[in-house]
Design a protein that fits this description.
heterotetramer; A: Rossmann fold; Rossmann fold; 2 domains; 7-stranded mixed sheet; 5-stranded mixed sheet; 12 helices; globular; B: alpha/beta; two-stranded antiparallel sheet; 11 helices; binds thiamine diphosphate; binds magnesium ion
């Protein structure tokens, strides 16, 4: 009885719908059809009237969610692809994100963003937009990398009294399976040491966690023990856990799938050098996707984002090869 | 006196108060006592007050825009909220965090507008949707937009969504002939903005926005049809902005010929005259009302001016309500890297 | 044979070619030879081809959307462009950087769509505006949108802008009754999408999108009125998507009753029958055309399959054209910090 | 005969209109009215038909500019405030920014963003959005801090064959004056050492340049010579000049007015530590605005963004007080 990352997201929504009458889901093709990725499969039938197909109007979808949230509901908005949240950008960063601070009234909602690259998806169905949303004040930005986190973090996100950007990774939807849902849950805001090591720390999140773990396997063959930290939540960011890891290893590689300018990896590096400069035995490094749109063809795509191979290469460099 | 007359009188009352208050706000601005923008509803009081008067306070939703001082007051916003927000008082609804027309009390059914035009319509849709979920289906939600604001994608998406969801939304389109300096022929190409109603499958009305009586009539109808389940309603009011875009703008680009048309009539003067003609008030009663309005405005402003101003040292600088997540939210308090809480 | 007949025949020709090509593309997809999405225009060929046929190649602009294989071909896009883009060939117009329907040749008047629905309409407006600036005022720009795409703010802003600027824009609204799985009653609340035309002040038409003859007629009119300076034109074609949203989707949510209505007729079959009935072709001539179409498709696909694939090592990874600025653009080439060009 | 930062922007546009018939300007209230800030004052009269009032449709404004650009025009789009470019976000990052890479056809346009805070402007008329645009591949992002740069960089931006996000600072519009337009021009992509020093480097841009210079004056009273680097262009970013400065001083403070998570200052710090780790004598620091929406009241606003006083305080810390 195994469960995929995608099923975990569905199950978390089912449970939230079951346990809290204020939860509803709004998005394109999510009702009878169950969503482009089937993340809401059967939910419309199980919870009639609470899983609604929206018009192709991302701006209004978000606006509606904000209005419902400030009236006591707990909306979940599914964007068909993260990339289309560019249309909802204004309502997210200027309406949802500012509401509590401006008025004192919380705005509890979750925007689910099917994020990240998969082969053949091209420039407009592959984006990782977490850094944009994290830049703006007022949003919590989550990036689950495991089946358990997909489930527990989504459940917790729905109970938070703040707007949450929930970045699901499309590549993990089907590729990531667990034997069962783990009972273990770490609260939002805590990073997880996924693999212990002593020669270098890789700080990463989402699909890049798995590439990084494979890179660590590679390095293990060369006798290096790489510590791998899963950020889980990029805002808030658990600086203490990152620093503790760097304190153990003295070396930092921050890895992300998003575009290279600014963003998560720059924030990680900047926090580490500000507070843990003396802990570092080598210059901290970043590895991101390339600075072009995300290519369609699998050949190009594989060379555009970091992979186990390029992460391993960056680690070898970091370790002084 | 019949209910028709008393509604008119109430409308006049709020129009007068709004005009008096806004004149004071403009004076404060010109005296350098208000920082930032000042946006006045001069000429739009009848249209704005009418919409709000037709709503049920405590039950309905009203999302005002930049020229809705009269509607805000008619819906129950106390004058002191206006004064405090313009003056940046720490005691106002926005606590100095936001200013001027960017104010509201969502818990009283009045969301606080963001600047981006069109963005509040979908929020009202969501509030109405929430009421539906919560079984309070009789609630009506009203909001406003200008001729310029109808060009936003946000307007379109929200109108269409309201129609698909058959929400009891009333949208008041105040066509005041200008968006800032831009005349309507650079804003839209249709014959009349009401022609958009059919494209959304909503019921549309046109009204002379300078005529309080006509406005009250059309909004009474629109609100009751929305409440009765006939879906969204769009009311287009034709009028003229009798001032600049903001207090900083003299509006000198508004042609005199346009001012001389019926659009350019002052709704407050018209309503005052009507009060006299209908014998709903004597001249001295009107003068009394005017004096009372001035007095009330003076008091509110004086009170707001005595208020404490926001103190950065007392500010929580907390953008989210989940306090326990703040620790790791940013690595400040002093917004530099090195000092963390 | 009159021009009417020859236009019909030409339309049929492109419809047949498009259908044949797309069937091959779908087969390649199901055989695992195409990565990513495959979107077919099955059932929309008459509507799409008609619009493009009424344009002047080399002069006009045509911005196709996801179901415009027929229109693309009628406008002059060679079959090999389709095959190469789907197969990711390095020699195609998108060089493997973008795929499937995200292709175009802007220098031939055919912009390459981005995915975000509605976003191409304003781009066509800009292309037309450029032609105006450059003194080429006779150019017409045509583009398409689906029933779902009309719910986007982008659609609204661009339609309104086209009207304000009085641009010679022709927009074809293919109402195929579904947006992915979403039926029209969850998409819009108006009686008919053509009711939006008046709201923009543009001329609107409704046509049976399964009827090639009717489509040719309405687009002939719309294009000539746009060219003659009557401003934007909106043509709503009613039809049914005779396939899933993409090749991955079986479209099982489309009710059989709907398929049985006139909307569900296959425009290609209807046109073929008309060819026979009108004696514009004999059965054996039609079979010959069909065989030729298959042959042409086979050749294009075979050629694209022999093409080189994009090679990451040969890629410039250069997002801007100002090459001299690349050095400091990002700190890569290997997209890590430490190695710079 | 002095010239303000705002007048320089107007003059650059006038010259571009004069010299290149393909230039036109599109924006709200920019024609007869001359724009909300008067950056296009009289241009509609001087160049009839080429300075056009647009409807309140930021998405379509950008779409139109892209279409015109790929047909050989050189559009300048004025957003009334940078904050409203959130509505045009999709057309900017997905249409304009990807066009050259996808099709090989350049997309030469300039988006003018009146950016940054001024007293009383509040959450929606004060934003600094440069980091968002720099995160996406395909855009050039300029942030002039001087009258000369406002003029020469805008002129050069208009001639570039790529989409340029031109972030003008509203506070500088009227407050910044030069006696005349300097002849000296540095090309786009180069940072400028505005003040030479040897004890610490402040790397900054836009309005914060002037706050930083004042802070440097403060520190000079204490005997410290602070070097101040004006980035001028945040993408591309002139890492070499930054590194050369840090090599001289051994200390880095990156200062920006934008929100603190990610963004320019994180990018500066990350570049410096990656390539110049050994140059640093102390942990590099960042100073940004606070992580809340930008407050309306001047009291709060002054405490939200960095100022000469807080920059000086950060410098004292950096210097080891
Ligand atoms: C999306 C967006 N773009 C630009 C602005 C700047 N702006 C504020 S008010 C205004 C004019 C509004 O005109 P209209 O909608 O007719 O309302 P009116 O001021 O006439 O009441 C503009 C352009 C804005 N607030 N939002
Ligand atoms: C802004 C935006 N939101 C969502 C999508 C995802 N999407 C792609 S096609 C599609 C359905 C489009 O329906 P319609 O416009 O009716 O065109 P059709 O597919 O029926 O031809 C959706 C939702 C998108 N491309 N753009
Ligand atoms: Mg107006
Ligand atoms: Mg459709």
């Amino acid at each position: 009885m195994s469960i995929t990352y995608l099923e975990a997201i569905r199950e978390a929504q089912a449970r939230a719908l079951r346990e809290d009458p204020n939860v509803f889901i709004y998005g394109q093709d999510i009702a009878r059809f169950g969503g482009a990725f089937k993340a809401t499969k059967n939910l419309a039938r199980e919870f009639p009237g609470r899983v609604l197909d929206s018009p192709i109007s991302e701006d209004a979808m978000m606006g509606l969610a904000v209005g419902a949230a400030i009236e006591g509901m707990r909306p979940i908005v599914e964007m068909q692809f993260a990339d289309f949240s560019s249309i909802a950008f204004n309502q997210i960063v200027n309406q949802a994100a500012t509401h509590y601070w401006r008025t004192g009234i919380p705005c509890p909602l979750v925007v689910r963003l099917p994020s990240g690259g998969t082969a053949g998806s091209g420039p407009f169905h592959s984006q990782s937009m977490e850094s944009l949303y994290a830049h703006y004040p007022g949003l919590i930005v989550l990036t689950p990398a495991t089946v358990g986190d997909a489930y527990w973090m989504l459940l917790e996100a729905i109970t938070l009294n703040d707007p949450v950007i929930f970045c699901e990774h499309k590549f993990l939807y089907y590729h990531l399976k667990a034997d069962e849902l783990p009972d273990e849950r770490l609260p939002i805001g805590k990073a997880r040491i996924v693999r212990h090591g002593k020669h270098a720390s890789v700080v990463t999140y989402s699909a890049m966690l798995h590439e990084s773990l494979r890179a660590a396997d590679e390095l293990a063959k060369l006798g290096y023990e790489i510590e791998v930290v899963d950020l889980r939540s990029i805002k808030p960011m658990d600086t203490d856990t990152i620093l503790a890891s760097v304190a153990r290893t003295g070396r930092l590689l921050a890895v992300g799938e998003a575009f290279p300018w600014g963003g998560v990896t720059a924030e990680v590096v900047s926090r580490v050098v500000a507070e843990g400069f003396h802990l570092l035995d080598a210059p901290p490094k970043r590895l991101n996707a390339r600075d072009t749109p995300i290519p369609y063809h699998p050949n190009l795509w594989a060379a555009h984002r970091p992979t186990a191979a390029t992460i391993a290469e960056a680690l070898r460099e970091l370790l002084g090869f | 006196m019949d209910s028709h007359a008393s509604l008119f009188q109430e409308g006049f009352h709020w129009m007068l108060l709004a005009r008096t208050l806004e004149e004071k706000i403009a004076a404060l601005y010109h005296a350098g006592k208000i920082v930032g923008g000042v946006y006045l509803g001069r000429g739009q009081e009848a249209f704005s007050a009418s919409m709000a008067l037709c709503l049920e306070k405590g039950r309905d939703i009203f999302a005002p825009l930049i020229r809705d001082q009269a509607g805000r007051m008619a819906f129950g916003e106390p004058m002191i909220d206006t004064a405090r927000t313009y003056l940046g008082s720490a005691l106002g609804p926005m606590r100095g965090r936001d200013g001027n027309i960017h104010r509201g009390r969502p818990s009283k059914g009045m969301p606080a507008m963001i600047s981006h035009l069109g963005a509040m319509i979908a929020v009202v849709c969501g509030m109405l949707k929430a009421r539906q979920f919560q079984g309070q289906s009789g609630t009506v939600g009203a909001t406003c937009i200008g001729d310029g604001g109808t060009s936003t994608g946000a307007f379109h998406e929200a109108m269409n969504m309201a129609s698909v969801e058959r929400l009891p939304l009333v949208i008041a389109v105040a066509n005041n002939q200008f968006a800032y300096s831009t005349p309507t022929d650079r804003q839209y190409g249709c014959r009349d903005l009401v022609d958009r109603a059919a494209g959304y499958g909503v019921e549309g009305y046109v009204v002379d926005g300078t005529d309080l009586e006509a406005c009250l009539e059309v909004f009474t109808k629109a609100v009751s049809r929305a409440r009765a389940g006939h879906g969204p309603q769009m009311v287009v009011g034709n009028l003229l902005r009798l001032c600049g875009h903001g207090a900083h703008d003299d509006g000198s680009y508004i042609p005199d010929e346009l001012k001389a048309t019926d659009l350019g009539r002052d709704c407050l003067k018209l309503a005052r005259q009507r009060m006299l003609n209908k014998n709903w008030a004597t001249l001295s009663e009107l003068e009394m009302m005017e004096a009372e309005a001035s007095e009330a405005v003076q008091q509110a402003v004086a009170q707001a001016q005595r208020d404490p101003l926001p103190d950065p040292a007392q500010e929580s600088w907390q953008p989210i309500s989940s306090t326990w997540l703040m620790e790791t939210m940013t690595n400040s308090p002093f917004h530099t890297d090195s000092k963390r809480a």
